[in-house]
From TrEMBL, chain A:
Residues 321-375, 385-441, 450-508 form the MIR domain. The keyword Membrane applies. Keywords: Endoplasmic reticulum, Glycosyltransferase, Membrane, Repeat, Transferase, Transmembrane, Transmembrane helix. It is a multi-pass membrane protein. Residues 18-42 are annotated as: Disordered. This is Dolichyl-phosphate-mannose--protein mannosyltransferase. Transfers mannose from Dol-P-mannose to Ser or Thr residues on proteins. It is an enzyme of class 2 (transferase). It comes from Polyrhizophydium stewartii. GO terms for molecular function: dolichyl-phosphate-mannose-protein mannosyltransferase activity. It catalyses: a di-trans,poly-cis-dolichyl beta-D-mannosyl phosphate + L-seryl-[protein] = 3-O-(alpha-D-mannosyl)-L-seryl-[protein] + a di-trans,poly-cis-dolichyl phosphate + H(+); a di-trans,poly-cis-dolichyl beta-D-mannosyl phosphate + L-threonyl-[protein] = 3-O-(alpha-D-mannosyl)-L-threonyl-[protein] + a di-trans,poly-cis-dolichyl phosphate + H(+). Gene3D superfamilies: 2.80.10.50. Residues 27-36 have a biased composition (Basic and acidic residues).
Automatic annotation (TrEMBL), chain B:
Its EC number is 2.4.1.109. Its main location: endoplasmic reticulum. This is Dolichyl-phosphate-mannose--protein mannosyltransferase. Signal peptide: none annotated. The lineage of its organism: Eukaryota, Fungi, Fungi incertae sedis, Chytridiomycota, Chytridiomycota incertae sedis. It is found in: Endoplasmic reticulum membrane. Belongs to the glycosyltransferase 39 family. Keywords: Endoplasmic reticulum, Glycosyltransferase, Membrane, Repeat, Transferase, Transmembrane, Transmembrane helix. Residues 329-389, 411-469 form the MIR domain. Pathway: Protein modification; protein glycosylation. It comes from Polyrhizophydium stewartii. CDD domains: beta-trefoil_MIR_PMT4-like. It is a multi-pass membrane protein. InterPro entries: ArnT-like_N, MIR_dom_sf, MIR_motif, PMT-like, PMT_4TMC. Coiled coil: none annotated.
Length: 754, 778
């Protein structure tokens, strides 16, 4: 930057006019004036020895991520979750989790390499069995964490920082204690961070080719890679960053009147292909792989449609009796996306009728079982199997408590516009409000004319006989008194077409031995006295595997909706979440809270989730500095003062500021709206803040003589490294009593020791 | 579209011309453009005779529609139950609490005061009869109706100031005159009509100020700038919505300042700083100061204790005459018989010789210890005594040194920070908590008592630390006013209670347990009564009968406390209401609010917009957005149909109104509280102004007398030139059509607004255009 080119305006109007002439020259991107950049040297020349520098950075990063990685032979922190999920991939059992599957599949792969057979349950704090080489799995995570550093270095170079500045960025990534410790365990975070870093790197390189050589092979490659890295990790926030950049880019080109329309349209087409279709395909492909691997029945079955479950190996649905008969013991699945199983339990509603709760539940247990019974005035016939048909009036008797599913004109607990559904009466006592009309909607396999209700494939509604309302579950989560299960109501103004009002039979048992259920004893008392002696009807014949099929697309949407809804249901519960886990987003940039990742006994190896204060506080201040610089330059430009000699120079400043500040903003502010936040959610945003840190130090230092430039950068790096080493035990594992680290408790809120 | 194509082909030349023009205009700043604009509509024409006549007519019409049969129904309708009541409290000078700032209610009360009403009636229930209770409700309603009617002439004048033709401004005025929702909301005792009036007033002031921009720092300029600040303060004084209004003015000011900053405008930094400071002064500091004024009056009127006491701190309550909670506070001494009352739910800490059941319904096991429960009344089982530490079990007890006063009086006072035992007098046992889950809340600890013989093992579990709120360690614990916590010395849980009722075995009394989070409000208690030989007639021997140890709160502390409480309780208004709705459906007349209903005559007052007006308005806003986008895209491609003048007007006039609409609507999406249709009304007014301005712009452009293609080169004439033409016959015809339809629709739906009812159910059903309108008798 040549300072001689800057002009300072005096207070007189004449001088201002003179400056106005200068201002009409291209200085900044200005929509109104439609000035276009001269094609700038967008691709930075690689500084000498960049490969060697990158190698050194990688080696150092690997050392920090892998040093003493097997020190604690216990399940640390969320390894309890992600180790377990890895186990499910190895056992090929279907499980459910709110995160997309790629990271967990990679952990599964790590488990495979480590020779993990899936038998270890990853109980929190448990000791790893000798045959499980947990260090291999951790090593795998550590690799992803280490690779952030060289990517950060190259990102710096491609953001047109100096060699020293780029090294500073990589150094800050390496020496952040939080990045370090989170990469050392079997978690998702290191992969999330790696893919975030990769997306930014690809985006920045792509942008440089966009400026110099659009439609070149490199341009295609890097845009494609941007799409791949976005799809591999669906960080919605990273997608938003790339999206906003792309809109900015397209808007910029729209103003270029020299660009032929065809070229412009091509820009659009390739962006759609690379930045929308590619990531989507990768995302969907991950799920295809997920479903492909997890082909056995497991703990996550109940989140999915009944048909999907039937397709899993080990599911007993395939042997379900085909057609529903009176006396069948069934579970009822709601047909809305992510719908649960009709459920009841002894707990009562705290308000309304205060009768027994009826809910939808996403896990299988015996409280989901109901027995289909005829209306009160109809006897249950035992001599002949009587099938349930469209239009029949039935009762649903909860197998565990003998209560009848009941509705009445009492407002539902949450959806006050609809009626409450409760468990009422018992096997002998009840009223007309226990009666439901079963209405067949359609069937996946047979035509509409078939009146009988089939397991799994028939969708039907349950209409309350006296009120006319429909049994409904619409994903409304009950508070703690309902155990965060889903509310079930009777819809006052029945919407016949809503899938939330449709149900299907999932589990279906109708065998001699189970028959008759206890609930019916009273009704057959006149027929026979002893259970063993009665004449039992012929069992309802089972279906076969081909009867039950489901489609990938449907399963994909089901799983995604279920992930979305349960993510929303995970609001913090002050009764349950321990205080020290929960933090507020405003704590993060200032490193107000720290988090213990494991037990804190004197003889345990302890890990503390804490950032490197130099990096955290410095990066937060840098964000403010970048914004101030940006505003300062714009205001000065408005006043006719030139700070940039070429438009390309301004463009590069603008790009770095945009990526770091906008990226940070998009990865940080959404957490203010979300209910469930923990310290490590800040880490992706921290990466952008670190970019801002390196960039702003470099930007300012560059204005100094080159010796001072290097010195300033080196000083910042040295402080950060010293700070890292001082805090190193928090990341590498503390042994001995935590109070030995009292001198590192710089803020009272850090829970280093109690 | 064909125009666009054609001109794109010969991209070279015309584009160059446009760019040159643009540059020339930009170099001159907006002076030239603005002067040209002013020439188009000279100032005197804005207030021409024709315009003033129309203004008078629409004002009269507005008053008529809003005051028509205003006495009906003579009963408390909907939120009159709140705002009428608040007015009464002002007249009675009793302290009340509301989530809205005081100005609106104070104005209402002022009206009541002027007609000599004493505030006897408290508007307790919807449907209470006014005539029987001798309430001047018609005067109250007239005041609101007149405020509501004031919206119409102000909207008219604002549009006139924005260079909209008389016809266009009349369209806006009449759409507002005949909107059912505005009428319904204005003719009842509610705050919204005042809110709407001040919103529009603030916009009017800003427009007036903006038009003075060529004579900065003149008297008029300062005057209108200050008035804009006053407008902001007025809106903020009614409801917090004022913050949105402030946001609109703020955005416009920033845009304005950005233009002034341009070096090509030739302003020195010093002048610019002056511009900046003037705006900061008038638009931030002035409104803030004015916002305080109603609060100051509020505190000076409401000097007596009233229903709002409980929302405020003890120190605040001390300032109210006749506050029961602060009268007769005494210091608590060890050994005195005390009753302890829960701060939030007002139950007494109670124990009796019944035990917890061995097993709960969910299978958990209790300690079977003596029950500790919360009971709404005080009886002999609510009597406790504080017992100091016993040196036998706890060595640190020896440390205590009596003060001179204590030695003289022969007592020892309970002080904040003391560790005490709580002795239950009737059952001769001591309060204790232990690591057993409480009956209903399994995450909390069970409370029970033990006898003295069990001290050997469990003494430490019976110890409680007294933590007095807002007091230092060593301060004496006082009865009545002071809130305190009892925190278990061993388990660090606080004695706490929520409104959870125990089953039969607990006699339906309230659960009390140990809460690990010791900072919650649920663990606050106060001493309700004290019995001790030294206390006679509520005063300790040797003490003055004085309540307050600290000086009374000053105005700012009171203001800050009230403001915090308002924000807190506003956010807490989450209790579902059958007629609450989500902001997404508001502009589309999907659902109304039932204000009042009467079976006989099928009468119902149902807040519902005039569907034609509302749909017209929202469509216009959407159309504006689309046109704006298309224009910007075209401009980016070098096609300039609008011309800089028209675009300036398009952005600064209609654009301002669109931003106002958006800022008065979109923020509601982020709010967690219960929301109602009437929250949209200010935004609706802005959207109607957009609709009329856009209609005028397009109408004058489309039906212009100027040929669309003129000039030697056969170039298209910019839209801006069309706009400079006056309205044509065709324009008037379309306008009349739109107005006629909206007026018919008003008449058709007027029974909803005035509660005039329907003859038959069939008729009523015919008026139910959408199935989502939940009318009572349809």
């Amino acid at each position: 930057m040549d300072t001689g080119l800057r002009k300072r305006t005096t207070a007189s109007t004449a001088a201002a006019r003179a400056a106005a002439d200068a201002a009409s020259e291209p200085l900044l991107r200005d929509d109104e004036d439609r000035i276009h950049p001269q094609m700038s040297p967008g691709i930075p020349t690689m500084p000498r020895g960049s490969i060697i520098v990158a190698l050194i950075i990688t080696v150092v990063a690997l050392w920090t991520r892998l040093y003493k990685i097997s020190l604690s032979p216990f399940v640390v922190w969320d390894e309890a979750h992600f180790g377990k999920f890895a186990g499910y991939y190895i056992k090929r059992q279907f499980y459910f989790d709110v995160h997309p599957p790629l990271g967990k599949m990679l952990n599964g792969l790590a488990g495979l390499i480590a020779g993990f057979n899936g038998s270890f349950e990853f109980e929190s704090g448990a000791r790893y069995p000798p045959e499980l080489r947990y260090s291999v799995m951790r090593f795998f995570n550590g690799l992803f964490g280490a690779l952030m550093a060289p990517l950060a270095y190259y990102t710096g170079i491609h953001l047109h920082m100096s060699q020293a500045g780029a090294i500073l960025v990589a150094t800050l990534v390496i020496v952040d204690n939080a990045f370090c410790v989170i990469s050392r365990f079997i978690l998702l975070d290191s992969m999330l961070l790696f893919f975030t870093t990769l997306s930014v790197y690809c985006l920045v390189v792509f942008r440089n080719y966009q400026k110099t050589d659009p439609f070149s092979p490199e341009w295609h490659f890097w845009m494609f890679m941007t799409g791949i890295s976005l799809g591999a990790w669906v960080g919605l926030f990273a997608v938003a960053l790339v999206g906003l950049h792309t809109i900015d880019d397209l808007w910029d080109m729209l103003g270029n009147l020299k660009m032929p329309a065809k070229t412009y349209i091509n820009h659009w087409i390739f962006r759609i292909a690379y930045l929308i279709i590619t990531p989507l395909s990768i995302y969907v492909a991950c799920f295809a792989l997920h479903f492909g691997i997890l082909n056995r029945s497991g703990p996550g079955d109940a989140q999915m449609s009944s048909l999907f479950q039937a397709s899993l190996a080990g599911s007993d649905f395939k042997s379900n009796p085909l057609e529903l008969a009176y006396g069948s013991k069934v579970s009822l699945k709601n047909n809305a996306r992510g719908g649960g199983l009709l459920h009841s339990h002894v707990q009562r509603y705290p308000s309304g009728s205060e009768q027994q709760q009826v809910t939808c539940y996403h896990h299988k247990d015996s409280n989901n079982e109901f027995i289909i019974m005829p209306a009160w005035d109809q006897p249950l016939e035992f001599e002949n199997t009587k099938f349930v048909e469209h239009g029949d009036v039935v009762r649903l008797v909860h197998a565990q408590t003998q209560k009848n599913i009941h509705s009445h004109r009492v407002a539902a607990p949450l959806t006050a516009a609809d009626y409450e559904v409760s468990g009422y009466g018992n096997a002998t006592f009840g009223d007309a409000n226990d009666l439901w009309v079963i209405e067949k909607v359609d069937d996946w396999t047979v035509s509409k004319d078939v009146k009988r209700i089939r397991s799994l494939t028939t969708r039907f509604r349950l209409r309350h006989k006296s009120i006319g309302c429909l049994l409904r579950s619409d994903g409304v989560t009950l508070p703690q008194w309902g155990f965060k299960q889903v509310e079930v109501v009777c819809q006052k103004k029945p919407d016949d077409n809503s899938p939330s009002n449709m149900w299907n039979i999932e589990l279906h048992v109708n065998e001699r031995r189970e028959y008759p259920p206890r609930a019916c004893l009273c009704l057959i008392a006149h027929a026979d006295t002893s259970l063993n002696g009665i004449q039992l009807p012929t069992p309802v014949p089972p279906g076969n595997a081909n009867t039950y099929r489901s489609s990938f697309i449907r399963d994909f949407f089901d799983l995604n909706v279920a992930m979305w809804t349960s993510n929303n249901a995970l609001t913090p519960d002050p009764d349950k979440e321990p205080d020290q886990l929960v933090s507020q987003p405003y704590h993060w940039p200032f490193l107000i809270r720290t988090l213990r990742m494991c037990g804190w006994g004197d003889h345990e190896i302890k890990y503390l989730l804490i950032g490197n204060p130099t990096v955290w506080w410095g990066s937060t201040a840098s964000l403010a500095l970048v914004v101030s610089l940006f505003l300062g330059y714009v205001v000065r430009w408005r006043r006719g003062i030139r700070d940039f000699t070429t438009l390309a120079e301004w463009d590069n400043f603008y790009m770095a500021a945009k990526v770091s500040v906008l990226g940070w903003f998009l990865h940080y502010f959404p957490f203010y709206i979300m209910g469930r936040v923990i310290l490590h959610h800040y880490f992706p945003a921290l990466y952008f803040a670190v970019l801002a840190f390196g960039f702003v130090v470099d930007h300012i230092a560059r204005k100094l003589p080159s010796v001072l430039h290097i010195a300033l950068v080196a000083l910042v790096a040295a402080v950060a490294i010293a700070n890292f080493l001082f805090f190193a035990d928090f990341s590498f594992g503390m042994s001995g009593p935590a109070s030995a680290y009292a001198n590192r408790r710089w803020l009272k809120t850090w829970n280093i020791y109690s | 579209m064909s125009d666009v194509r054609q001109r794109k082909k010969g991209a070279g030349e015309p584009v160059a011309i446009t760019r040159a023009q643009l540059d020339a205009q930009a170099a001159d700043g907006d002076d030239k453009a603005a002067k040209a604009a002013r020439q188009q509509v000279p100032a005197d024409q804005t207030y021409s005779l024709a315009s003033n006549v129309v203004l008078a007519i629409v004002t009269v019409l507005a008053v008529i529609t809003r005051t028509w049969s205003i006495h009906y129904p003579g009963e408390v309708v909907f939120d009159e139950v709140h705002f009428g009541k608040f007015a009464s409290y002002y007249l009675r000078r009793e302290y009340f609490f509301d989530v809205h700032p005081p100005l609106g209610k104070m104005l209402l009360a002022g009206v009541g005061y002027l007609v000599g009403y004493d505030g006897k009636f408290l508007f307790d229930h919807i449907g209470d009869d006014y005539a029987k209770n001798n309430v001047p409700y018609v005067v109250y309603r007239l005041w609101c109706a007149l405020c509501g009617a004031g919206v119409v002439p102000l909207a008219y004048l604002t549009l006139r100031e924005m260079s909209v033709s008389i016809a266009g401004a009349t369209l806006c005025a009449l759409l507002l005159v005949f909107d059912n929702a505005l009428i319904t909301q204005s003719r009842l005792i509610l705050l919204d009509s005042m809110l709407m009036l001040f919103c529009v007033l603030c916009t009017f002031f800003w427009v007036k100020f903006y038009k003075q921009r060529h004579e900065p720092f003149s008297a008029k300029w300062w005057g209108w700038l200050a008035m804009t600040g006053v407008g902001i303060a007025l809106v903020c004084g009614i409801k917090m919505v004022g913050l949105f209004t402030m946001g609109v003015v703020g955005i416009a000011t920033l845009v304005d300042l950005w233009e002034l900053l341009d070096i090509r405008r030739g302003l020195t930094l010093r002048v610019f700083t002056k511009h900046f400071a003037a705006r900061a002064l008038c638009l931030i500091f002035l409104p803030f100061f004015l916002y305080l004024v109603p609060f100051y009056i509020h505190f000076n009127i409401l000097i007596n204790s009233g229903p709002g006491d409980a929302f405020m701190s003890m120190r605040f309550q001390e300032t109210l005459v006749g506050n029961a909670a602060t009268a007769g506070a005494v210091s608590i001494m060890y050994g005195a018989n005390v009753t302890i009352k829960h701060g939030e739910t007002s139950v007494f800490l109670h124990s009796h010789s019944h035990r917890y059941p061995l097993k709960y319904d969910d299978g958990r096991i209790s300690s079977q210890g003596q029950q500790i429960v919360g009971y709404a009344h005080s009886d002999r089982n609510s009597v406790w005594q504080m017992v100091p530490l016993d040196p036998e079990y706890h060595p640190s007890a020896d440390d205590y040194e009596e003060t001179e006063e204590e030695t003289k009086r022969g007592v020892r006072y309970v002080r904040s920070g003391d560790i005490v035992q709580l002795y239950h007098v009737m059952t001769e046992s001591y309060l204790l908590t232990h690591d057993v889950a409480s009956p209903l809340t399994t995450t909390h600890m069970e409370m029970t008592t033990i006898k003295e013989e069990d001290f050997e093992q469990r003494y430490n579990e019976t110890l409680w630390r007294v933590q007095v709120v807002d007091a230092d360690d060593g301060d004496k614990l006082k009865s009545k006013k002071q809130l305190f916590r009892l925190v278990s010395h061993q388990h660090r849980v606080a004695v706490s209670s929520e409104k959870l009722v125990l089953p039969e075995w607990g006699f339906k009394m309230q659960q009390i347990n140990g809460n690990k989070n010791t900072n919650e409000k649920t663990s606050l208690w106060r001493i309700a009564s004290v019995e001790h030989e030294r206390i006679v007639d509520g005063v300790e021997i040797g003490e003055e009968r004085s309540d307050s140890g600290k000086p009374p709160l000053n105005f700012m502390s009171k203001f800050v406390e009230l403001q915090k409480a308002m924000i807190h309780h506003n956010a807490a208004l989450t209790k579902p209401h059958p007629y609450s709705s989500s902001p997404g459906i508001w502009p589309f007349v999907i659902r109304g609010i039932s204000f009042w209903e009467k079976k006989e005559g099928l009468r119902q007052i149902y807040l519902l917009g005039n569907p034609l007006v509302w749909w017209f308005s929202i469509l216009s806003v959407a159309f504006y957005g689309a046109l704006w986008l298309v224009d910007r895209l075209c401009l980016r491609r070098g096609l300039d149909d609008f011309g800089a003048n028209a675009r300036r007007w398009w952005d600064r006039a209609i654009g301002y109104l669109v931003v106002a609409w958006a800022l008065h609507w979109l923020p509601f999406f982020l709010m967690g509280r219960m929301l109602f249709l009437h929250h949209y009304l200010p935004a609706f007014i802005y959207s109607t102004m957009v609709a009329a301005a856009l209609f005028d712009f397009l109408g004058r452009a489309v039906f212009a007398h100027v040929p669309r293609r003129g000039g030697a080169a056969g170039q298209a004439v910019p839209v801006g030139v069309w706009f400079s033409a006056g309205p044509s016959i065709a324009y008037y015809a379309v306008l009349a059509g739109v107005l006629a339809a909206c007026m018919w629709s008003f008449w058709y739906f007027s029974p909803y607004s005035y509660g005039s009812g329907f003859a038959t159910v069939e008729q009523l059903r015919a008026h139910k255009w959408l199935s989502t309108w939940d009318l009572q008798y349809a």
